[in-house]
């Protein structure tokens, strides 16, 4: 039920972003949606009907080359998306600022794609063509899909002009970022590797002062040829400065590497210590296997 809800909400976002923002502001898109929009601008064909026909043709051809489960994933999204676009394609009004329209169209459409992918489904389109070429000729799916999308966007120069084609590129870029945030989460975190001669002391202070679990690994220095422990810890971004100060207090010469991470689950990285945990910490009992 949750996956169906995500698919419906995601499809609705794509449809409304397309009809309320993209169409009235002369923006295109990649994939089959982009082809439908360009034909709409050129010949005033209904994008909803064109979208449905295009997907039916693609799915009909792909049945011969692709596994059934890949085809079934698009059978819910495609008719629903086509219907929603058909019903709302005349409701949008120009904003007067295509750049603002491109940004918000990217956010809404990209979020919709993210929700659909999160539900384990897809819109299909040029990715179906990429999969077919992969099955028949062994071509790279991502490369084929990317080249097709680029060609569709570039074709917009001849229909909507170079300026609106560039606005379309902005919308696609914003949409990619929005999809990534929907899939990976908005709560960015930092993963920190700390190599120090005082790794145990640093790990204890992290556990005691920051209420975050840390994992201590045995390491070996390729240059120094000495065994040395390293600490791995994940903290929320606002706490990274506190962590760095803590490390410098204990070992100013510690080697610290910080990585950006968005999706962290499991473990006890951000658990608030209970009273029993606090007592154990005060008595000197530390668990270094936080992962």
TrEMBL record:
Keywords: Cell membrane, Membrane, Transmembrane, Transmembrane helix. Residues 213-266 form the DUF2179 domain. It is found in: Cell membrane. Its main location: membrane. It is a multi-pass membrane protein. The keyword 4Fe-4S does not apply. It comes from the Bacteria. InterPro entries: DUF2179, N-reg_PII/ATP_PRibTrfase_C, UPF0750_membrane, YitT. Pfam families: DUF2179, YitT_membrane. The keyword Signal does not apply. This is Uncharacterized membrane-anchored protein YitT (DUF2179 family). The lineage of its organism: Bacteria, Bacillati, Bacillota, Bacilli, Bacillales.
């Amino acid at each position: 039920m949750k996956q169906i809800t995500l698919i419906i909400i995601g499809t609705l976002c794509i449809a409304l972003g397309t009809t309320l923002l993209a169409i009235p502001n002369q923006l295109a898109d990649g994939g089959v949606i982009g082809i439908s929009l360009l034909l709409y601008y050129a010949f005033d064909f209904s994008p909803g009907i064109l979208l449905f026909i295009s997907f039916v043709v693609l799915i009909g051809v792909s049945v011969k080359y692709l596994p059934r489960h890949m085809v079934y994933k698009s059978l819910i999204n495609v008719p629903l998306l086509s219907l929603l676009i058909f019903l709302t394609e005349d409701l949008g009004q120009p904003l007067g600022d295509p750049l603002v329209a491109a940004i918000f169209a990217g956010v809404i459409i990209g979020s919709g794609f993210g929700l659909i992918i999160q539900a384990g489904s897809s819109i299909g389109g040029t990715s179906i063509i990429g999969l077919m070429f992969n099955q028949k000729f062994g071509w790279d799916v991502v490369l084929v899909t990317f080249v097709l999308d680029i060609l569709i966007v570039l074709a917009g120069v001849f229909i909507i002009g170079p300026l609106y084609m560039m606005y379309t590129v902005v919308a696609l870029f914003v949409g990619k970022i929005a999809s990534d945030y929907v899939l990976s989460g908005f709560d960015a975190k930092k993963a920190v590797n700390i190599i120090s001669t005082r790794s145990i002391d640093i790990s204890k202070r992290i556990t005691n002062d920051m209420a975050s679990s840390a994992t201590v690994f045995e390491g070996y220095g390729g240059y120094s040829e000495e065994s040395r422990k390293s600490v791995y810890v994940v903290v929320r971004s606002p706490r990274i400065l506190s962590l760095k100060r803590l490390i410098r207090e204990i070992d100013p010469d510690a080697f610290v590497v910080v990585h950006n991470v968005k999706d962290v689950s499991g473990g006890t990285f951000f658990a608030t210590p209970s009273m029993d945990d606090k007592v154990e910490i005060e008595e000197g009992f530390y668990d270094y296997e936080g992962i």
